[in-house]
Amino acid sequence: MYTLLKQEGEARRGTYTTVHGTIQMPAFMNVATAGAIKGAVSALDLKEVHCQVQLCNTYHLHLRPGDRQVRQLGGLHTFTQWNGPILTDSGGFQVFSLAKLRNITEKGVTFASHIDGHKIFMGPEESMQIQSHLGSTIAMAFDECMQNPAEYEYARRSIARTTRWLYRCKKEMDRLNALPDTVNPHQLLWGINQGSVYDDLRIAHMKQIAELNLPGYAIGGLAVGESADVMYHILEVLGPYLPKDKPRYLMGVGTPANLLEGVRRGVDIFDCVMPTRNARHGHAFTMEGVRNLMNAKYELDQHPLEDGCQCPACQHFTRAYIHHLLKSGEMLGMRLMVLHNLYFYNTFLEKIRAALDAGNFTFFYHDTIDTVSRRI
């Protein structure tokens, strides 16, 4: 259940209560694609970096180790040892990312596995069954994510099919949650708004899926080719049509500046691989901007990645040491960078929540927006 605590302009401060714990919103979800954060970070580390929600990938876990195996092992919470909320995506993003390996029909999508090329079929029912086996807290509806800009007529037909798929998802999840041996009978289904970059399609689709009164709604199909200004425009267009009493999830976004702009436009929850992917390439996010630890200027720098930061990396190690680890190809360098960036993202959202609590989010936004994403 979503509870709106405060609002400043369109920015919302709320909580979302689930069977696996309460999420303080706005929030950032930490992406554990195959059940772990890339960079040798386990679920036990996530508490130390202030993580609230772990996000796992339905498609990848279906391939390895297999969703039925995860179910036999007690579901994702037992399997990964993460005891907080888990969101699983639907596999629908692979409809977009594996465009050259797919065939879309009304029934669903046939993929060629990126691992060995064997054929995989996934439709709304299969996606719900896989996510039920995984036992996640929140399951995302099966949809098609289109590249931007898609042709208008294609986008119109695609979202009509996505809507039909959503009704099938809901019917199947209701059936699965009623089974006596389901891993998580309280699993929540969130719908996904699509419509490419077309205002009228976005609004019409949001009106349609809002009628289902689902526990949450995502805005999908953004940050896939369009400019940031177009993304922000879509958020503004959708704002009046998003249910006020449900969480709003902007999928796959983004930079610290994107998060600030999203919150400013009413978004409650985000996910992105950026903090971990960039960390593994030596980029550290800080309140002053982004540092590239691969640069030679850090060879003798005895400061932490960010002065005053309380993450596990900054408490114990210097920029010089982490620079050395990265240049040497040592896994520890990537691990420390990932821990720092996740800590930064999670505590950045804590700062945003504190600003909303204090009624000074607008000041925080203007004081921060130009610095957090600049290159140092």
Characteristics of this structure?
15 helices; tRNA processing; transferase; queuosine biosynthesis; 376 residues; three-stranded antiparallel β-sheet; alpha/beta; TIM Barrel; 19% strand; zinc
Task: Explain the overall architecture.
- With 376 residues, this protein is an alpha/beta fold.
- The chain folds into 2 domains: 2-272, Alpha-Beta Barrel (TIM Barrel); 284-368, no CATH class.
- It has helices at 43-48, 58-63, 67-72, 76-80, 92-97, 124-134, 152-177, 199-210, 228-238, 256-264, 274-280, 312-316, 319-328, 331-358, 361-368; strands at 2-8, 11-18, 21-25, 27-31, 53-56, 86-88, 102-104, 109-112, 119-122, 138-140, 188-193, 216-219, 248-250, 269-271, 283-286, 289-292.
- The strands form 4 sheets. Strands 4-5-6-10-11-12-13-14 form an 8-stranded parallel β-barrel, surrounded by 5 helices. A 3-stranded antiparallel sheet has the order 1-2-3. It has a 3-stranded antiparallel sheet with strand order 7-8-9.
- The radius of gyration is 20 Å and the shape is globular.
- The model has no long low-confidence stretch (mean pLDDT 95).
